Amino acid sequence: MKKILFSTVALLSLMGAAHAEDLKEFRIGLIGGENEADRLRNHQCLVEKLPAVLGVEKVSLFPAADYDGVIQGLLGGTLDFAELGASGFAKIYLAKQDAVQPILTTVQTDGSKGYYSIMVARKDSGITKLEDLKGKKLGFADPDSTSGYLVPLVSLPKDIGMPVKEFFAETGFGGGHENLVLEVLKGTFDAGTTFGSGVGEFKTGYTSGNLKKMVDKGILNMDDLVELWRSPMIPNGPLVVRTSLNDEMKAKFKQFMMDLPKSDPSCFAAIEGGDFQSFTEVNTDFYAPIIEARKATVGG
């Protein structure tokens, strides 16, 4: 499989590509936070299936080094589709309201349309509760991550009784969810914030989310971690399409994705990284609380 790499600069250089009415290539952005080879492999089924569905010559995958690479590609009109976290969508919406349209989100196996920010520490650290982290170092996943940064920033103060910067001696970023957990295991951070469905058992990494993906890949043993804190439920992130795509292509793509859990369960599981029930329709209103939280907390 041919790898296609990109940076924000490379994405922006693609500006001026074909208009929607004569689109020959459908461009999919893959947010950072997981090993690049894994992201490419997990989405290969879309590369194989979508050309016939959409009537394009090819489908290309663009794995970004971080969340912002895909965000800038969507803002610049150089990507046609991506699956984002709610905070990433909020960043795009606050910068350019008509850049993308949220069309679908995932439904958990229990029927819920949300997930959780989950704070973990090494089990052998002696840290067993949130209070034990006073004066220690906390790792976040990515500045544009909902569960890995925005929601903890908003929700943690209610549980620790003070702003995050006053409670912890230091905070930092792990460079995406997967790497953040690995850095916690290495001792770079005393604890870190990642995400999971909260459905099922902690010992298996729950039914979906970063912990589950790491367990399934054999790079994480949940016996090495302890859960310290869980956020309120967060809206599952949206699948978004470029607004300027023609309506027929949007409709075909949306229907293909809606059908995917039944038409190709293995492809659905691969691109979503865990066990989910289905997709369901959403619009911008579903993300209004996250948009307001981002606007109030970190700006655009």
TrEMBL record:
Pfam families (UniProt xref): Phosphonate-bd
Keywords: Signal
UniProt keyword Signal, yes or no: yes
Keyword Signal: yes
Name this polypeptide is given: Phosphonate transport system substrate-binding protein
A cellular component term, taken from the record's GO annotations: ATP-binding cassette (ABC) transporter complex
Signal sequence residues: 1-20
TM region(s), chain numbering: none
Gene Ontology BP, a term: organic phosphonate transport
Organism: Gellertiella hungarica
